[in-house]
User: Which sequence fits this backbone?
């Protein structure tokens, strides 16, 4: 099982529309994905989880994927 991690700064706040796009993209993959922000973590395939973090513009977030297609999932989210 592959484990991949990625950290980056957001270029805009993650609102409802952006959260929906992230969830749709993450749901295309079998890998389990976690979003970490300010010592909290949520399932990247949960729109309510992402929205509950209230990620601001310029925030540093971490994404971790575990599963057979983890590398592809991280690459797709990085596009």
Assistant:
């Amino acid at each position: 099982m592959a484990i991949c991690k990625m950290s980056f700064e957001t270029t805009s706040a993650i609102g409802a529309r952006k959260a929906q796009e992230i969830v749709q993209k993450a749901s295309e993959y079998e890998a389990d994905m976690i979003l970490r922000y300010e010592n909290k973590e949520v399932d990247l395939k949960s729109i309510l989880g992402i929205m509950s973090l209230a990620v601001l513009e310029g925030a540093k977030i971490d994404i971790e994927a575990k599963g057979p297609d983890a590398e592809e999932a991280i690459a797709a989210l990085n596009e």
Notes: The longest strand covers residues 2-9.
